[in-house]
Structures are given as structure tokens and as C-alpha cells.
Design a protein that fits this description.
Helix content is 36%, strand content 23%. The chain contains 10 helices and 13 strands. The radius of gyration is 32 Å and the shape is elongated.
């Protein structure tokens, strides 16, 4: 089995220049046609310069365009993974369940609760080595955002898409998030841990019962409280991301969202884990990860592609061939092709009378 990838996909942005080149070429050709018309009628001009070719400029431009595309693809460096290896790893399975309810937009922790959580998770991913990670998002319902994996690049990619609009139903379904996280592990004997990142407000379901069920399956529950006990208002944004004020209740009073610390402490205790409160200097994930690292690591198999082989040289060689072809094509027709008329149109001879 082989896998195909581009080692430097950032060069694909260069393809955005193609429409610019086409517009510039069209403008130049239009300017050329207008300039020729100022000298006389097209039939007269064609007889005065019989060697001029109308199609060759377009052909040369197309060749240059294809050469440019091939150069961009070559710079992106296509590679083929020619070897699939099964590697024995030792690690822990971790599922991070992150609250994406609107209360996570509160700014008592800068820049706000959800962005602070995402930054902390990103740093945690950078520290992972042989561990596997999965991501669950929850508000009124819970959803698997990333199945458990050792692909840390994919974890960061999925993490970047997490926001408060990703789950339509509001609420804080911690119990459902724990149950979904347990399902994400599958049937294996690895040591497992669930990290719940939430403010715990508007808590729904019996999360303590769910945490105890997790312990029965050998899964530890850790909780991180995002927010401060004194709380903060919930910003309201329009569709363009501009703040329109703060969320209000039915009596038009500003809603203050506060950290439900006692609930998160109870969940961590029932899950035989630890609770940490985040603040503006520490998000708590570092401490939690150190605690998780104390668990015994389990061996598991992981398949990875190795020995990627570069294929850019073929594309650059093809681009060079097109450039050479464009170079040897002259815009004027040769003498032997001067009288060739592919479309069968009649030539108009200019007769002069003496």
C-alpha cells in the first residue's frame, strides 16, 4: 500500500496567479488588436505581414501557463510513501472533551475561555510522543470531533475548527460527553484518561454516575475548570464576528456566567482523577498531563508510512520541456507554411494600377 502527499503544500498559493496571467494576456492581445486596427483593415494588414501567425501567441501562452503549473506542483514536492511499517509504541489513550457552549466565550480568562482551552490543548499535543489522542466537543449534546489517533497534525487541524457554533444545542451535557469519550476508546487494554474542559455551568445529566462507570472500565476522569468564580458576562456577536453587546435574560439583565467549581471537583473525585482551575497564567493541562504520565504506559501497534520518495523532478523536467518548446516556437510562420490556409478562406489580392 502506498500513500501520496505533497511535502510543501504552501506553494499551491502560487496557482492563484493563473487568473492574473490570463487577464494580463487578454489585455495585451486586446491592445495589440486595437493597435493593428489603427494601421488599416485586418485583411490589408495580413497581406502586408503574411508571416504573422494569429494562433502561435495563444499556443506559446498556453505552454507557459502549463509550465508554470508544473513548476508550482514540483515546488510543492509530491511524495510517495513506499513503505508501511508497524511500530510498537508505549503510551496512554487520552480523550479531551471540550465545552463549546456560549458561556465559554466569557472573557474572565483571556482572550476568552474557549480560545484559552484551545491554546492549552495545542501545547499539550506538542508534548505528546507515543500517546493517542481524541477530541469530543459538547454543549447541549456531545459529538466526536476527532477519533482517537496518533496523528498529531490531524489533532491540531481539527482543534483549529472548534468554536461555539459547532454544536447547535446549548447546555453542558458533561454526562453525555463522558459516555461518548468512553466509546471513543473502543475495546482495548490501554490505560485511558478523559480530560473534561468546561465551566460546568448549566450542567445537565448525571455526570458523577457517568464518571463512576468510566472508573469501572479502567478510565480516569480529570476536570479543568475554565473561568473564575466571580464570573463574567457572555459576549454576543453578529454573523461577521462583531460584538453586539452581552447576553441578557428575560428581564433584560446582563447574564453573568460563573465557574461551577464544586461540580467539577465532584466529577474528578468520582472519576479518581484530579481537578484543576484554569487562570490567566496556567490552563491546568500541564499539571493534568503530568498526572496522566504517572499511569503505566501500554504497548500498542501503530502503522506509519516511511521512506517517502520525492517526485518533484519529473514535474520540473516536464516544465523545462514545455519552456524549451515555447522557446523554439516563433510567432512568425516559416516560408514553407506561408501559403497554408487551414480554414479554406480565400485570399484577397491587392491590385495596383499604374
Amino acid at each position: 500500500m502506498q500513500i501520496f502527499r505533497f511535502a510543501e503544500p504552501v506553494f499551491f498559493y502560487g496557482l492563484l496567479m493563473i487568473p492574473v496571467f490570463i487577464i494580463i494576456f487578454w489585455i495585451m492581445m486586446s491592445w495589440k488588436r486595437k493597435a493593428m486596427k489603427r494601421f488599416g483593415e485586418s485583411k490589408l494588414i495580413s497581406q502586408l505581414i503574411p508571416d504573422a501567425s494569429k494562433s502561435k501567441p495563444q499556443i506559446k501562452f498556453i505552454l507557459l501557463l502549463f509550465a508554470f503549473v508544473l513548476i508550482i506542483l514540483g515546488l510543492a514536492n509530491p511524495q510517495i510513501g513506499s513503505k508501511l511499517e508497524t511500530v510498537e509504541r508505549k503510551g496512554i489513550d487520552i480523550v479531551i472533551a471540550i465545552d463549546v457552549s456560549n458561556s465559554m466565550l466569557a472573557e474572565d480568562i483571556k482572550p476568552n475561555r474557549i480560545q484559552r482551552a484551545r491554546q492549552a490543548i495545542s501545547k499539550l499535543v506538542d508534548e505528546l510522543k507515543n500517546d493517542r489522542i481524541g477530541i469530543v466537543v459538547f454543549a447541549g449534546n456531545a459529538y466526536t470531533q476527532l477519533p482517537i489517533t496518533t496523528d498529531y497534525s490531524a489533532a491540531k487541524l481539527f482543534l483549529s475548527t472548534i468554536n461555539t457554533d459547532i454544536v447547535p444545542t446549548q447546555g453542558t451535557a458533561i454526562a453525555e460527553a463522558i459516555e461518548l469519550s468512553m466509546d471513543a476508546f473502543g475495546e482495548n487494554d490501554h490505560n485511558k484518561a478523559i480530560i473534561i474542559i468546561t465551566d460546568g455551568e448549566d450542567h445537565e445529566g448525571d455526570a458523577i454516575v457517568a464518571a463512576k462507570k468510566a472508573v469501572e472500565k479502567g478510565i480516569k476522569i480529570y476536570t479543568i475548570g475554565m473561568g473564575l468564580p466571580e464570573g463574567a458576562p457572555i459576549p454576543v456577536y453578529d454573523r461577521y464576528g462583531n460584538q453586539q453587546g452581552f447576553k441578557k435574560d428575560l428581564s433584560n439583565n446582563t447574564v453573568i456566567t460563573r465557574l461551577n467549581e464544586s461540580m467539577l471537583q465532584q466529577i474528578a473525585a468520582a472519576g479518581e482523577g484530579e481537578y484543576v482551575r484554569a487562570n490567566n497564567t496556567q490552563a491546568g493541562l500541564g499539571f493534568i498531563f503530568n498526572e496522566i504520565n504517572k499511569l503505566e504506559k501500554t504497548e500498542f501497534e501503530s502503522r506509519v508510512f516511511s521512506d517517502y520518495e520525492d517526485r518533484f523532478q519529473y514535474l520540473l523536467a516536464a516544465a523545462l520541456a514545455l519552456l524549451l518548446l515555447e522557446f523554439i516556437i516563433f510567432e512568425r510562420r516559416g516560408k514553407r507554411f506561408r501559403n497554408v490556409n487551414l480554414f479554406g478562406s480565400k485570399k484577397t489580392n491587392i491590385k495596383t494600377e499604374s
